[in-house]
Each structure stands twice: as C-alpha cells, then as structure tokens.
Amino acid sequence: MKINKITPQGYCGGVKIALSMVNQALHDPKYPKPIYLLGSIIHNHHVIKKLQEQGVILLEEPGKSKGELLQSISSGTIVLSAHGSAPQIYQYAQKQGLTILDTTCKNVCIIHDKIKHYLNEGYTCFYIGTKNHPECEGIIGISSAIHLISNENDIPNLPFQTNKIYVTNQTTLSIYDTQKIYDEIKNKYPTAILDNKICNATTIRQKALFEQEPVDLCLVVGDSSSSNTKKLVLASQKAQIPTLLIDSVDDLKKIDLSPFNSISITSGASTPEEIVDEVIKYLKRAN
C-alpha cells in the first residue's frame, strides 16, 4: 500500500498559541484556579480531555448560552476560546469577577476589528458563516446590524439597497464554496467591499487536497465538530477522491483496507500530530 502524507499537518499557529496560553496559566499563580473553558477552546475532544485531566473545567451545556454558563461561577479564570467571543461575554465575565484568559486567534481578532471599523463608518456588514458555530456567534454578537449569510440562498433575501456594504467571512470555511457566495454578492452589490478572510492555514490545507495525486482513498483525521476539518473532506471530494473522516486510529480499525492500494492522509488544524502518526503506523502495519 502506498501512503501519502499530505502537508501541512499538526496544529495551526492559532491553536498552538491558545493551548500554550492555557498550559502556562495552569502553572502561573497570577491566574486564579480553577480554570474554566467557556466552550471548547478548540474543536478536538482528545485535546479537551487532556486539559480536563489537568484540572481544567469545561463549561458547556446544551440549551445554555455562554452568558448563562458564566453566571454559574463567581471565581477563578475563564478561558475564551480561539474562535473569538462577543463583546457581552467579556462584560459578563468581568461582572462575575473572573480573570479572563483570551485565546482568540489573531486572524479572528482582525475580523472583529474590521467589522467594528466599517460599522462605525456607516456600512452595512454581511458575514458569511456557519450558524451556531462559535466563531460566527462571536461576530454576530458584535451588533444586530451584522447580517449572516449561511449559503447562496440567503443572498436574494437581502433587501439592502446601499453603496456602503462590507462583506467578510468565517476563517474556516471552504475556499471554493465561499468564492461562489462572494461572486453572487458582487453581482447584486457591485460596489461592495469583499474581504475574504479564510485563514492561510485553512487555504493551504484545502488546496493541497484539491491538488493531491489520485489515490484510492483519502483519510481526513479530525474531530467531526471541527469546521475546518469538515471542509477538508469537501475539498478532497471535489477532487473526485473517495474520502473518509476519522477521529483516530480506533475508527480506522473498523475499516476494511484490503481494497485500497493507495491512501492519502491529512488532518484538521486542531488535530494533534501524534494522532495522525498513530494512523500512519497502523496503515504501515496493515501493508
């Protein structure tokens, strides 16, 4: 069996920084304990489990907003995830007397700042994102004047007739699907400012999949809750290659590999590299 490890692999820069900040806070007395995660700091349950084993507490409960979760604690340190948070979340945390550890990815911070700038300049802001994704929630929470576009079908329903429109997007979307939406918006609003903010780590991984050499199967290693991981699956499928999303080597053990003579492997930006290494070792043993 031929095994093709597609690069890049491992954590993106934003994930590395976020996890480093939490690990340092665990040993730094200036951060009151316990340390809480307000939702998953990144979308990988293996990583979250390791943090919990070190004493970090995950605040996550279906049906409860982040504001409601914050009201349940009154001391310690709250970690705001790499996906970014709405302004009111900072206000809630401060009101509760919590120490804030903000791990927002710098690419997401740029989007927050640019949207605030254009809103202050009187622009109507469109945001292309996935409803209920934490990055999207953080942006939409900035102002009710931001209008979410989930797909192309939302565009005809936008009633705005103005020359002052600013458009940007969630950093972890598909570079291919997002471009279609931007093209549709440009057709309807020729003077709109289009600011595609898919992060470089996401773009490089998607392009690498789309340009990969033909194989019998492509394995995408990552958490099914991760947006950038799911978009890697779509990119590989667009390349007309049979593709499977697996969480770890345990999923791989359930697959009959005998029909496949060649397999490529990639991973999401929040997937630990050791998990990918375990998958590759298993494939080599299966040869």
Describe the protein's architecture and organization.
With 287 residues, the protein is α/β, with parallel strands linked by helices. 40% of the residues lie in helices and 17% in strands. β8, α7 and β9 form a beta-alpha-beta unit. The relative contact order is 0.15.
Strand content: 15-25%
Helix content: 25-40%
Radius of gyration: 20 Å
Query: Sheet with the most strands?
Result: 4 strands, parallel
Number of helices: 11
Number of DSSP-assigned strands: 12
Q: End-to-end distance, in Å?
A: 6 Å
Average pLDDT reading: 95
Quickly give the structural class: alpha/beta
Q: Secondary-structure element order, as H and E?
A: EHEHEHEHEHEHEEHEHEHEHEH
Topology diagram in text:
Elements: E1 2-5, H1 13-26, E2 35-38, H2 45-53, E3 57-59, H3 66-70, E4 77-80, H4 87-95, E5 99-102, H5 106-120, E6 124-128, H6 134-140, E7 146-149, E8 165-169, H7 175-188, E9 193-194, H8 200-210, E10 217-221, H9 227-238, E11 243-246, H10 249-252, E12 262-267, H11 273-286
Parallel strand pairs: 1-12, 2-3, 2-4, 4-5, 6-7, 6-8, 8-9, 10-11, 10-12
Describe what is shown at a glance.
This protein has 287 residues and is α/β, with parallel strands linked by helices. It is 40% helix and 17% strand.
Defining traits:
four-stranded parallel beta sheet, 12 strands, alpha/beta, 17% strand, 11 helices
